[in-house]
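Retry 2 of 3 after timeout on previous attempt. Resubmitting structure tokens to design endpoint.
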């Protein structure tokens, strides 16, 4: 009798681990590869360079060599040129005495940006910059108030370059990030920041008046790319912060941790995404009137503003966007969007999150299906990720001539190369 009672308690304990193993086997987590990343089956990552500095956006030449823009100059230089042999790359030159983020190659030129200006360098037939000390200055005098100051760039197929000018504010309050402070009437920031400007890619020393105020109401865009299938601009906006901190009577800490959305927008000339007057609630799938402008967390608004193409969880900080046009990856990735999320700092009391690259499928130039985490493990351990003490933070994305995907990390200065092995 005593023996039967003991078995009565022991047998369930034996069964529980077996059940857990059974469930886990149906949804296996791919193991981390040699670069420390977790990837879908068939993919692998290599670290091609490390300890480069604050590596932001990146561009790959037709020959497979790499240009990297540094957010802080290193040894007095803000651009690195790396020669790649196999899966390793070595710095062979550095130039440009300015920090910044933007980096793009188009039609035989390397385009780069500081936090105020945009430059271009002529490339030779080997993909090398011809006169590294004599760039052409394309755009000059863009606003830099040392908040959301990076100037990301992308080009279309008609000789135009698009530049983000981030808003030097969280939500255009009278007193920025001060509890209860209301919004500035008419938000004067929007005349020279909080949007996208279009300029000619070959005209020197253009200023605001020479360009087109292409899109408004975008708080801050770091990741942007030109969709070749749909022939239009797509941007990833950093959503606003601190709903609970600024208006605790209207928002819980949990709401503030996950809202509002980080939004992918398809942008055409004249579009307005609504910042600072509205934000997008990804839980309700609605545009909500900002509390600084009379909102209460429930009132909808934003008639005449564009809807997001995709809404992601809040505060993940999307810093890179790339439409994949290569042939190396399986067909389902063709023309889809990769997005590098730099990771959060303000999701408390929820764990900090992000620090990964996601994939959003597209069909005929439009999102098709749900997004998924493509590459994870940049942050290190789960504890490092949840505390916000990430080891690596994804930032820039680029496609190599062989169809591989490159990812930069601006914390340790690492460049990852992700390839598909058939």
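Retry 2 succeeded. Sequence:
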């Amino acid at each position: 009798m005593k023996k039967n009672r003991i078995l009565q308690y022991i047998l369930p304990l034996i069964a529980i681990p077996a059940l857990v193993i059974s469930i886990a086997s149906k949804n296996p987590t791919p193991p981390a590869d040699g670069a420390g990343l977790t990837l879908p089956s068939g993919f692998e990552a290599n670290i091609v360079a490390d300890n480069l500095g604050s590596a932001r956006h990146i561009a790959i030449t037709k020959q497979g060599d790499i240009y990297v823009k540094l957010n802080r100059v290193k040894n007095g230089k803000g651009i690195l040129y790396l020669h790649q042999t196999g899966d390793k790359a070595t710095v062979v030159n550095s130039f440009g005495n300015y920090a910044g983020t933007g980096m793009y190659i188009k039609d035989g030129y390397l385009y780069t940006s500081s936090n105020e200006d945009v430059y271009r360098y002529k490339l030779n037939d080997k993909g090398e910059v011809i006169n590294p000390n004599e760039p052409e200055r394309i755009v000059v005098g863009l606003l830099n108030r040392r908040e959301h100051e990076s100037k990301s760039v992308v080009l279309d197929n008609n000789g135009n370059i698009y530049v983000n000018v981030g808003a030097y504010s969280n939500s255009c309050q009278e007193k920025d990030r001060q509890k209860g402070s209301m919004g500035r009437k008419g938000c004067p920031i929007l005349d020279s920041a909080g949007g996208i400007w279009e300029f000619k890619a070959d005209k020197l020393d253009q200023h605001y008046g020479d360009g087109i105020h292409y899109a408004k109401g975008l708080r801050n865009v770091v990741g942007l790319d030109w969709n070749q299938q749909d022939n239009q601009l797509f941007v990833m906006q950093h959503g606003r912060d601190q709903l609970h901190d600024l208006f605790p009577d209207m928002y819980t800490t949990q709401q503030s941790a996950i809202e509002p959305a980080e939004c992918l927008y398809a942008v055409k000339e004249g579009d307005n995404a609504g910042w600072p007057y509205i934000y997008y609630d990804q839980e309700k799938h609605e545009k909500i009137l900002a509390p600084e402008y009379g909102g209460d967390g429930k009132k909808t608004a934003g008639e005449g503003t564009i809807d997001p193409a995709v809404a992601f969880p809040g505060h993940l900080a999307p810093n890179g966007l790339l439409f994949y046009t290569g042939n190396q990856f399986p067909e389902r990735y063709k023309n889809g969007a990769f997005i590098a999320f730099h990771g959060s700092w303000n999701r408390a009391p929820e764990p900090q999150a992000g620090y990964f690259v996601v994939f959003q499928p597209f069909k005929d130039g439009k999102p098709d299906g749900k997004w998924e985490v493509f590459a994870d493990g940049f942050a290190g351990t789960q504890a490092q990720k949840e505390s916000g003490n990430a080891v690596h933070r994804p930032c820039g994305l680029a496609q190599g001539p062989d169809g591989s995907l490159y990812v930069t990390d601006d914390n340790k200065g690492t460049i990852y190369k992700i390839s598909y092995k058939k």
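Attempt log closed. The chain has four helices and 29 strands.
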